[in-house]
Amino acid sequence: MTTTDETQAARPAGRPRSVRAEKAIIEATLDLIGESTSLSELSIEAIANRAGVGKTTIYRWWSAKEDLVVDALATLKAPLPPLAGRFVREDLITCVEVFRREACDGRARCVLNIAMNEAERHPRLADRVRQAAIEPRRAVLTALLERGVATGELRADLDVSVAIAALIGTVVWYMRCIEQSPDGDVPEDIAERIVDHILAGLASR
């Protein structure tokens, strides 16, 4: 039997990923990172054991541990929800509420921890994590704050980078303190309160 070029072209290249196995591998990677396994100690073998797959399955889809870690961490930072685009305060509250929920998630906090704390030991990985999971958020916030300056809602001399750091830093610091407090209750309006206090310094005068 002669195999035609058309038949060969239709044959898929390589084995397609199993959605179930891929999810198990991603979850296993996140679990191990969340359990404070350092990136240096994190191994493909440990991930494979936790996910219930063979190491060859992982290497078939990810050529290096670094690639797998980046893909896994990127799943923790979903795109920000659509912003209403009417008022800066309203959109900032939407963003801060997302940051607040993520600050309560131990695995989601790994993204920021790796980007900030692993830069010296794993500079390439930390940079890729920033590009995949942090910079898209920064771009949204930058555009939002610049829009506020243009509309006159925010002060003309606003330092956008400092404003972003103030917003995110306040959320992270506040949620960490709440975790360590005796009651641990988070006010339902905390996103609004944080934004209003920050805007007191950012608003146009």
Tertiary shape: elongated
Q: How much strand? A: under 5%
Helix content: 55-70%
What is the number of independent domains? Answer: 2
The total of helices stands at: 10
Helix and strand content put the structural class at mainly alpha
| CATH architecture verdict of the largest domain | Orthogonal Bundle
Mean pLDDT: 83
List unreliable stretches of 5+ residues: 1-13
The first-to-last residue Cα distance is 82 Å
The count of β-strands is: 0
Radius of gyration from the CA trace? 22 Å
What composes the largest sheet?
Answer: none
Kindly summarize this structure in a few lines.
By secondary structure, the chain is mainly alpha-helical. Helices cover 67% and strands 0% of the residues.
Topology of this structure?
Layout lengths: L4 H6 L8 H16 L9 H8 L3 H7 L3 H10 L13 H16 L2 H12 L5 H29 L8 H21 L9 H13 L3
Structure description:
The chain has 205 residues and is mostly helical. It folds into two domains: 58 residues, Homeodomain-like (Arc Repressor Mutant, subunit A), CATH 1.10.10; 115 residues, Tetracycline Repressor, domain 2 (Orthogonal Bundle). The chain is 67% helix and 0% strand. Helix 2 packs across helix 5 and helix 8 crosses helix 9. The protein is elongated, with a radius of gyration of 22 Å. The relative contact order is 0.10. The N terminus is likely disordered.
